[in-house]
From TrEMBL:
<comment type="pathway">
    <text>Cofactor biosynthesis; molybdopterin biosynthesis.</text>
</comment>
<dbReference type="InterPro" id="IPR036425">
    <property type="entry name" value="MoaB/Mog-like_dom_sf"/>
</dbReference>
<keyword id="KW-0460">Magnesium</keyword>
<dbReference type="InterPro" id="IPR036688">
    <property type="entry name" value="MoeA_C_domain_IV_sf"/>
</dbReference>
<dbReference type="GO" id="GO:0006777">
    <property type="term" value="P:Mo-molybdopterin cofactor biosynthetic process"/>
</dbReference>
<feature type="domain" description="MoaB/Mog">
    <location>
        <begin position="187"/>
        <end position="322"/>
    </location>
</feature>
<dbReference type="InterPro" id="IPR005111">
    <property type="entry name" value="MoeA_C_domain_IV"/>
</dbReference>
<dbReference type="InterPro" id="IPR005110">
    <property type="entry name" value="MoeA_linker/N"/>
</dbReference>
<dbReference type="GO" id="GO:0046872">
    <property type="term" value="F:metal ion binding"/>
</dbReference>
<dbReference type="InterPro" id="IPR038987">
    <property type="entry name" value="MoeA-like"/>
</dbReference>
<dbReference type="Pfam" id="PF03454">
    <property type="entry name" value="MoeA_C"/>
</dbReference>
<keyword id="KW-0500">Molybdenum</keyword>
<dbReference type="GO" id="GO:0061599">
    <property type="term" value="F:molybdopterin molybdotransferase activity"/>
</dbReference>
<comment type="similarity">
    <text>Belongs to the MoeA family.</text>
</comment>
<keyword id="KW-0808">Transferase</keyword>
<dbReference type="InterPro" id="IPR036135">
    <property type="entry name" value="MoeA_linker/N_sf"/>
</dbReference>
<dbReference type="Pfam" id="PF00994">
    <property type="entry name" value="MoCF_biosynth"/>
</dbReference>
Amino acid sequence: MSELLTVEEHRARVLDAVTPLPVETVRLADAAGRTLAAPVRAAHDLPGFDNSSMDGFAVRLADVEGADAENPVALRVVADLPAGSSDDPSFGAGEAVRIMTGAPVPTHADAIVPFEDTAGGLADSLGTVEVRRAPAASGAFIRRRGGDTRTGDVVLTPGERLGPFAVAAAAAAGVADVEVRRRPRVAVVSTGSELVPPGVAPGRGQTPDSNSTLLAALVADADADVTVVSSLRDDADAIHALLAHAADVDVIVFSGGVSAGAYEPVRQALSERISFVKVAMQPGKPQAFGALDDGRLVFGLPGNPVSVAVSFEVFVRPALLALQGRAVIDRRIARLTASEDWTTPPGRRQYLPAAIDLVAGTVRPATAGGSGSHLAASLARAEAFAVIPADVSTVSAGDPLDVMLIP
Ligand code: AMP
Ligand code: MG
């Protein structure tokens, strides 16, 4: 019981308990933030046809070879191709077709002359055009069919998060429905008889419940749905009632009530059903986790707000992403140089709320005066967590550090 688990050991127990949620098909318009469960393949070539990358004139290269300002070449303009036209006008030697960006290149053209390389503007060019600069080569300013992707090519792979770029890629590839994992449904539950709702002036002995707000925002940020938000008094019966109420969730995240004090309702209510452990980290040493018989995953995080934030990053967020089948469940790590000295607890890995300067490549504590895990308001200054190995006891300016980036 008093033995410390490493962060990796506890994390492995958490992730071992995760089974990805079922797959469902959603319209692309509803897919942003979801995790892909099957590859997205291009339904057609993209571009679907050779098209012009400039407003100008489709020409036969042989007609305009050698053209320059001193030796312009006049061509007769015999057709006009706006974007959206499906025409394929034929044209002969000494002729050209006016063409707009994105319009299909006529079969008999082998280059585009941008209108900037002709005399006169586009407006009065339906007659004769004077080419004042020859295209550099065959294919100049032509975007080739399939140059982006080809029919059947994998555009997006399972496990990818469908961010704005990804949903746009699916749309461009002609895909309207995608297979994704169901979003996890999550209950966030604060415990503590001292808690009052935000906006209520705390009396002596009371403190605002910031963890509910913190956890609800973190869960949403992990692309999961917060379906229950609750704040309970330190009373084991209230925990049992909550468990009955939140029957329809995949995950319950408690804050507070898991450590060794006299009033620890999560521990009292659940000590037979989930494990209560100590993890070699700071903050976040007391942790509770387990799967209930009905499959719901239960996290019990220590109540200090910074401990909640760190525990969420290290254990809960990876689990929520693994439930969605996400291929990458870890935050990005940057290697930055400490710009200040500070001490860290021996034998425990420190996750220090940090301010970073990505241009200078430096990291420093987000709050002067150390790493108090109760500094709920100062947490707002953190942009990252500096991760200090357990066997390090002092950080000195100039030391290289791994830093977990929180976007
Ligand atoms: P606990 O883990 O329950 O012993 O709580 C540790 C510390 O975190 C105590 O000072 C609590 O008042 C504080 N705390 C617990 N829950 C919350 C919460 N929801 N919001 C803000 N502070 C909290
Ligand atoms: Mg408490």
